[in-house]
Write a structure and sequence with these properties.
Length: about 150
């Protein structure tokens, strides 16, 4: 079983000026630059981070943030992301806490954990920092979703 995990922030582009535009520059593939009236683009979704098969993070979110629900996407708040960041940092400081705080397999002890497990935790902390920064500066709504 494999799961792709996406962390996004949806920004709402509300501008009362009739001439406000979203400008997209030309890219290397030859797509021409374009300017789109903001009235056509009420929101944009920024993909802040992606993990693959970080089940320890997925199950923590399902159990602690979404009341056991796996109906995605799910909105998240800064408090919950802060809690997840704290748990990741605790396990990174004291690796023996992995099975207790962030078990890879739900409800089972499968340690010892390899380096990829801890890299997922470091990546999660980085993703959370970026999400909170963007949400703090621009507002919007934070989401988590998966593709199995």
């Amino acid at each position: 079983m494999s799961v792709d995990m996406y962390f996004t922030v949806k920004l709402y582009l509300e501008d009362k000026r009739k001439d406000a535009v979203l400008t997209i520059p030309e890219n290397e593939d030859g797509r021409k630059a374009m300017s789109i009236p903001l009235s056509f683009v009420p929101s944009i979704t920024l993909r802040i981070g992606q993990l693959c098969n970080a089940f320890q993070i997925h199950w923590w979110l399902v159990d602690n943030a979404f009341d056991g629900s796996e109906d995605f996407p799910q909105g998240m708040d800064g408090y919950t992301l802060g809690q997840l960041k704290e748990v990741c940092e605790k396990v990174l400081r004291s690796r023996e806490l992995a099975d207790t705080l962030l078990p890879f397999v739900r409800g089972e002890n499968v340690g010892p954990y390899l380096e990829w497990y801890f890299q997922d935790l470091r990546d999660t902390v980085d993703i959370i920092d970026r999400m909170l920064d963007i949400e703090g500066r621009y507002g919007g709504r934070m989401y988590y979703s998966t593709i199995w």
